[in-house]
């Protein structure tokens, strides 16, 4: 049976519209977490019916953004996984890989407790938490990171600091490509400042 004329372009247009809506949502929700779906439709350049055809409500839209964020985070965590390197370099690599994802989806921070729920956020962050805790444990064993705190606690503290810095990006108080945050993370883990800066510079240059 032949394919109906126009079926493929329609599907392509649907995918394009969905991607445009999600991209607009990432941008506009960061500016105004209370923006309505009607306002989002106008900002995305689609009619209200098109937006609701993809996302029948706010919960569906946020769920799609959360799924995107989870997939992007898992992909970023996979970068460098299984590679043997010193813990300070591994943590720098991890932070530089994760920062663009956090920066792209930082608007979810403003929506986490109210709309997504902390259980959903915890599920999204779980792969990153497992990975960074393993790096911290390695660094403590090797004497690269301080041992004032158990690895899971230090890992949680580094995560909280990163989240706080992403919130500062949301407010416009901070602009960073991830390098300053990576240096700060290494310092917080116990790496001397000069060594932290050198490690991040080397990792950033290698990634670049």
TrEMBL record:
DNA-binding in keyword set: yes
Source superkingdom: Bacteria
DNA-binding interval(s): 36-55
Keywords linked to the UniProt accession: DNA-binding
Domain HTH tetR-type residue range list: 15-73
Naturally occurring in which organism (per UniProt): Streptomyces cyaneochromogenes
Example of a GO MF term: DNA-binding transcription factor activity
Pfam families: TetR_N (PF00440)
Stored PANTHER family: HTH-TYPE TRANSCRIPTIONAL REGULATOR RUTR, POSSIBLE TRANSCRIPTIONAL REGULATORY PROTEIN (PROBABLY TETR-FAMILY)
Name used for this protein in its record: TetR family transcriptional regulator
Signal peptide: none
């Amino acid at each position: 049976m032949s394919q109906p004329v126009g079926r493929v372009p329609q599907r392509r247009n649907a995918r394009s519209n969905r991607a445009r809506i999600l991209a607009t949502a990432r941008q506009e929700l960061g500016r105004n977490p209370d923006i309505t779906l009607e306002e989002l439709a106008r900002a995305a350049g689609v009619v209200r019916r098109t937006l609701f055809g993809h996302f029948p409500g706010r919960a569906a839209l946020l769920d799609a953004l959360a799924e995107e964020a989870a997939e992007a985070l898992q992909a970023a965590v996979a970068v460098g996984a299984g590679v043997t390197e010193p813990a300070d370099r591994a943590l720098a690599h991890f932070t530089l890989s994760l920062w663009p994802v956090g920066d792209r989806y930082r608007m979810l921070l403003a929506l986490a407790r109210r709309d997504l729920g902390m259980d959903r956020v915890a599920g999204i962050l779980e792969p990153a938490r497992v990975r960074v805790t393993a790096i911290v444990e390695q660094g403590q064993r090797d004497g690269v990171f301080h041992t004032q705190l158990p690895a899971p606690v230090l890992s949680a503290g580094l995560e909280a600091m990163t989240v706080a810095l992403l919130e500062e990006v949301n407010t416009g108080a901070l602009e960073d490509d991830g390098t300053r945050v990576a240096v700060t993370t290494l310092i917080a883990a116990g790496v001397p400042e000069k060594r932290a800066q050198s490690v991040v510079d080397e990792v950033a240059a290698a990634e670049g």
